[in-house]
């Protein structure tokens, strides 16, 4: 509520800003109150959100072949937060891109909510190391990119617009809809990318070292943000990182990769409670988990 | 209302996470108006720079004191004023009509060259074998001076408007091919992936993400190509022309009418500036970070 009032008090100063006529139209008073958070109501088929079976990928043509992994299996339950952890070049990004459908693979299958997928689709949102915002679109239009590209805007323009505004409030960017990406800070841009991916209501959110390029402070803020976002919406997440600390802080389960082409060599549950707090990392259980991961990685190297 | 991040109240999300953003809405507004002021100042400085160039020109002309070597600003201006409405050579067109004729040739050549260049560049970007096939041809033709083509163009297209326009587009084409490819290459692959994972079709992403992201750089290429097409206007109007700024400059040069030569050059500069300004305006609208 606090947030809403602040934004309303601030917004009138934006009126009469000649650079952005659209600012006039999005009257803050007309926006729905920032009530919050709908959970994803999945059609519960009992199938895991993500099921990867026997995935095999080799780069290169005749002659120099680079096998990245053979026969990888991965199953992610609905609402689960899984971290993929491993040394550089072990194939984490390759696996994530294969799940996203933007990288063809040799053998195996990927199923989302029990349906086998081939190409990319709105059911799998992806966040990259940099936010990949469209610099020519306002924050709001960035967030609306998915529905617009999928032709949903024609049918339910007002409704989706309201959802976008609500999503912007959720990520703490109420009132910034008409700003351009270059006018925001790094962390804010990342949160726009979250809002944009979440507006599609994807079955799974794939993240490839999303906070790798951020400074330490912004990074922990984004961790806190992500933890609470997950608490509120119980999104299914596959999160790629090479930071043991980050994996333990965020994940329910960690898949540890060996060197290429060994694939996933160990899976372990994170024995920490939810909602996750930063202090949890100092629990003995967390220390044991971290040590176990470290030893696995070192033994593999 | 908060002005700076320091005394901004902590934004508390519904999620209960405090997010202490370094940027608040007033900051965005302030930054925008600051940039607008900077733009205004830049225009002011630009005018000042041009004025200084004119002053230096006048000083040099006074020192040399020879209107045929370096005509003074006054004699150039009076030649400009005189011939703007008086035909030169007698029986042909006044200078303003010459400017119009040349602008038309430049715009046609520039338009055709740009269109073909962007098309060829996009195809080369999309189809790798075509790129490898066409690339050396472009590279070989790129350094050729427009003058070298004149005899051939006369043979092929006669002496009308066509060879002149073609000559200009020959200069524009490789510039636009190269800059279009460079612009598309510079769009990160992940931007395409990002669009695709948001549910957009390949076609939608190509047009609304990749080409759109490349557009500012393509327009920058167009600015360079526009300058190049003015560079070849004099060569183009060597082809049996009886009008146009290039023709007037050549003609006046032959009769040592230096103030008129300079007046013609000044006209080219003025029209060139006008056209470049319109491209820069396009850039302004295409790329929010330049506003
Ligand atoms: N397009 C490609 N062509 C050939 N080999 C590739 C290609 N992309 C990746 N590879 C190779 O596949 C392997 C796995 O790459 P991948 O990007 O998945 O690693 P990663 O685990 O994400 O590493 P990082 O932590 O550095 O991001 C690497 O050895 C890399 O050299
Ligand atoms: Mg990677």
The assembly state of the depicted protein chains is heterodimer
Rough shape of chain A?
Answer: globular
Specify the number of helices of chain B. 11
Q: Would you identify the CATH H-level superfamily of the largest domain in chain B? A: MetI-like
Global Rg of chain A: 20 Å
Q: Structural class per helix/strand content of chain B?
A: mainly alpha
List SSEs of chain A in N-to-C order: HHEEEHEEEHHHHEHEHEEH
Strand content of chain B: under 5%
On the 0-100 scale, what is the average pLDDT of chain B? 88
Largest interface: A-B, 63 and 47 residues
Under CATH at level 1, the class of the largest domain in chain B stands as Mainly Alpha
User: C-alpha Rg of chain B, in Å?
Assistant: 25 Å
Please bin the fraction of helical residues of chain A: 25-40%
CATH H-tier superfamily of the largest domain in chain A:
P-loop containing nucleotide triphosphate hydrolases
Number of strands of chain B: 2
């Amino acid at each position: 509520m606090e947030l809403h009032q602040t934004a309303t008090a601030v917004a009138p100063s934006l009126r009469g800003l000649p650079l952005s006529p659209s600012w006039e139209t999005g009257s803050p008073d007309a926006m729905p109150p920032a009530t919050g958070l709908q959970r994803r109501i999945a059609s519960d088929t009992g199938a895991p959100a993500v099921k990867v079976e026997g995935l095999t990928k080799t780069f290169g043509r005749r002659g120099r072949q680079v096998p990245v992994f053979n026969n990888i299996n991965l199953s992610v339950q609905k609402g689960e937060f899984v971290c993929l952890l491993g040394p550089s070049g072990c194939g984490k990004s390759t696996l994530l891109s294969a799940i996203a459908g933007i990288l063809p693979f040799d053998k195996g299958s990927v199923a989302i909510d029990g349906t086998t997928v081939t190409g990319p689709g709105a059911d799998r949102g992806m966040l990259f190391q940099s936010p990949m915002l469209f610099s020519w679109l306002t924050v709001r239009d960035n967030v609306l990119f998915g529905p617009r590209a999928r032709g949903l805007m024609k049918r339910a323009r007002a409704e989706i617009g309201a959802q976008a505004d609500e999503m912007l409030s959720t990520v703490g960017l109420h009132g910034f809809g008409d700003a351009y990406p270059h006018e925001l800070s790094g962390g804010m841009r990342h949160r726009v990318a979250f809002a944009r991916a979440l507006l599609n209501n994807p079955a799974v959110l794939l993240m490839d070292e999303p906070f790798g390029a951020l400074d330490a402070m912004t990074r922990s803020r984004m961790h806190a943000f992500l933890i609470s976002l997950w608490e509120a919406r119980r999104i299914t997440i596959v999160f790629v990182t090479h930071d043991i600390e980050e994996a333990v802080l965020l994940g329910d389960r960690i898949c540890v990769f060996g060197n290429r082409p060994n694939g996933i060599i160990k899976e372990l549950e994170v024995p920490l409670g939810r909602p996750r707090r930063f202090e949890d990392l100092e629990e003995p259980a967390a220390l044991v988990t971290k040590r176990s991961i470290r030893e696995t990685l070192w033994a593999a190297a | 209302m908060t002005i700076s991040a320091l005394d901004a109240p902590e934004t508390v999300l519904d999620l209960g996470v405090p997010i202490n953003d370094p940027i608040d809405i007033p900051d965005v507004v302030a930054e925008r108006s600051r940039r607008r002021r900077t733009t205004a100042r830049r225009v002011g400085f630009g005018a000042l720079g041009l004025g200084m160039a004119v002053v230096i020109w006048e000083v040099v002309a006074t020192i040399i004191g020879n209107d045929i070597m370096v005509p003074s600003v006054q004699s150039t201006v009076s030649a400009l004023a005189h011939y703007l409405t008086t035909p030169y050579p007698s029986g042909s067109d006044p200078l303003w009509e010459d400017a119009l004729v040349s602008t038309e040739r430049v715009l046609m050549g520039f338009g055709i060259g740009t269109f073909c260049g962007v098309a060829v560049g996009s195809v080369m970007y999309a189809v790798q074998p075509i790129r490898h096939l066409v690339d050396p041809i472009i590279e070989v033709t790129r350094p050729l001076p427009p003058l070298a083509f004149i005899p051939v163009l006369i043979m092929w297209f006669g002496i009308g408007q066509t060879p002149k326009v073609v000559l200009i587009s020959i200069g524009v084409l490789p510039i636009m091919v190269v800059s279009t490819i460079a612009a598309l290459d510079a769009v990160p692959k992940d931007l395409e992936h990002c669009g695709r994972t948001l549910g957009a079709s390949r076609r939608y992403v190509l047009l609304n993400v990749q080409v759109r992201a490349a557009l500012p750089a393509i327009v920058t290429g167009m600015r360079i190509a526009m300058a190049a097409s003015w560079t070849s206007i004099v060569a183009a109007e060597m082809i049996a022309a009886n009008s146009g700024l290039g023709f007037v400059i050549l003609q006046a040069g032959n009769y040592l009418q230096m103030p008129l030569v300079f007046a013609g050059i000044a006209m080219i500069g003025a029209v060139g500036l006008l056209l470049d300004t319109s491209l820069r305006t396009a850039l302004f609208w295409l790329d929010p970070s330049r506003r």
